[in-house]
TrEMBL record:
Gene Ontology molecular function: ATP binding; hydroxymethylpyrimidine kinase activity; phosphomethylpyrimidine kinase activity
GO cellular component, one term: cytosol
EC number: 2.7.1.49, 2.7.4.7
Domain named Pyridoxamine kinase/Phosphomethylpyrimidine kinase: residues: 55-306
Protein name (database record): Bifunctional hydroxymethylpyrimidine kinase/phosphomethylpyrimidine kinase
Domain Thiaminase-2/PQQC: 340-527
Function: Catalyzes the phosphorylation of hydroxymethylpyrimidine phosphate (HMP-P) to HMP-PP, and of HMP to HMP-P.
Top-level taxon: Bacteria
Source organism of this protein record: Pseudarthrobacter psychrotolerans
Catalytic activity: 4-amino-2-methyl-5-(phosphooxymethyl)pyrimidine + ATP = 4-amino-2-methyl-5-(diphosphooxymethyl)pyrimidine + ADP; 4-amino-5-hydroxymethyl-2-methylpyrimidine + ATP = 4-amino-2-methyl-5-(phosphooxymethyl)pyrimidine + ADP + H(+)
InterPro entries: Haem_Oase-like_multi-hlx, HMP/HMP-P_kinase_dom, PM/HMP-P_kinase-1, Ribokinase-like, Thiaminase-2/PQQC
Gene3D superfamilies for the chain: 3.40.1190.20, Heme oxygenase-like
Pathway participation: Cofactor biosynthesis; thiamine diphosphate biosynthesis; 4-amino-2-methyl-5-diphosphomethylpyrimidine from 5-amino-1-(5-phospho-D-ribosyl)imidazole: step 3/3
Amino acid sequence: MSPLASTSVLPPATPLAALPETPANPAAVRPAPVRSSAVQVLRDVPRVLSIAGSDPSGGAGIQADLKSIAALGGYGMAAITALTVQNTQGVRAVHVPPASFLGQQLEAISDDITIDAVKIGMLGDAAVIGVVRDWLEKVRPAVVVLDPVMVATSGDRLLQESAEAALRELLPLADLITPNLAELAILVGEPQARDWPDALRQGQRLSAATGATVLVKGGHLDGGACPDALVNAAGLLTREVVEVSGDRIPTRNSHGTGCSLSSAMATAQARLGDWEAALRKVKPWLVGALQASDQLEVGGGNGPINHFHHLQQVPAAGEFAETLRRASEPDLEAIYGLDFIRGLAAGTLSEEQFAYYLAQDAIYLNGYSRVLARASALAPTEAAQTFWAKSARQCLEVESELHRTWLSTRTVDSALGPVTKSYVDHLLAASASGSYAVLVAAVLPCFWLYAEVGQTLHAEFLAAGSPAAHPYADWLRAYADEDFAQATRDAIALADDAGRSASADERAAMLVAFRQSSRFEVEFFDAPRIHS
Ligand SMILES: Nc1ncnc2c1ncn2[C@@H]1O[C@H](COP(=O)(O)OP(=O)(O)O)[C@@H](O)[C@H]1O
Ligand SMILES: Cc1ncc(COP(=O)(O)OP(=O)(O)O)c(N)n1
């Protein structure tokens, strides 16, 4: 947030409440502001009006407000004060249409619709503020939340400096004022708060001066904590300061958090009728929206928050991979119980079965390489594309190594076996589905179960003292290759990412494809017993 050059109505460090009544001190001029209408009626779906500027990139302004109002269960309306040209990287231009046109929008809405709550955001200039003020005094909505937007996080001005005095005069008409730390400092005419106690003290000053409740926001504090607090100096809350603590979410995607918070608070207040309850409802929602923001992938700068994260039910990082792991547990157990695996571990497996397995593995790897190449073609990122392409190439290298070493010294029937055919057909079907996520889920068990089995058998081999006479010693050593273990971890992470970006239906299809491949892993290890 860039510092704002501003003349406060107050000399720094002068207690606001103690100021003489002058036109420059709105708090003193208006001790009994026209804050709200009669008794507030709580509604399940409150009708909430946002009076704010437009952000065409959808993260802040009225776009964020309408999403937040809907996310909190309200019916959203919007009267547009200004058009901005902006994206996640900054504001390029601002156009404020004639204030009289805003007046017409407000009249049209309030002539027809009962407004349960109003959120006021970007106002642009003094003429717009004057229109909003006149309208508020006439209509007197039950809940008025004022976000004193002055400067975007990018440092661009959203309120003309000359309009700051007019904005101050609007403050007493609000029930809740939601400045960030820079705006709070300007409004009380002090340097920006150095720490949280300092910010709370400034919030108390602003509340005392305006009569409004102030929501002091910790978004721009240093450190890992991100608290917010409601402050009311006139005894409207259960305590003068009601703090809701929170951790800082490590993300750049904080574009529009202030807009979203203020409109969500207006909506929650209209539903609950209690500011503390409203903040306790809104804060976890906002935290979830910040946590799920990466999923949106909007823009290269400070991206928007994910307003509807609670509807999308996106799994947390690692959660979908864990679901897959649990789904494969019965198949892993089944593999460990197979005669083939027990014989491989003990060194008692017949040469005939081992040779059949090797030959089928070579055939399988050729088909597997083709579907990995398809995963590379469908991959959403260059990193994923590279990973699958590399894996496809390695498969072909392992296949030729099998032929050069293990198979060249053996007499083996190299006809395509029924299990190999079914497994490869299943992978080809997943690749033909066109869904990267489903294909990645289908190819994963070959990495994951193979690596698990390999590590277990290798550990058993070491525990038995690495017997030199073991006929499959070289195979067991190769099984526990660290590069393959790393590739497996990468493949799991990519499948987890794909699952988090997928729709619920696609995730369900991923699980089906993964389960089917896991089952084929069992059958593949059992095939030598039946078909060799
Ligand atoms: N990284 C973050 N982690 C958690 N909460 C945050 C983070 N950044 C902002 N917030 C929250 O977003 C809301 C808006 O705060 P702030 O960023 O200070 O306002 P503004 O968007 O007006 O500059 C507050 O509830 C604040 O606690
Ligand atoms: C049209 C419009 N209104 C307000 C803002 C500022 O949004 P805010 O949520 O206060 O915070 P940042 O997006 O600046 O972090 C805006 N950018 N555009």
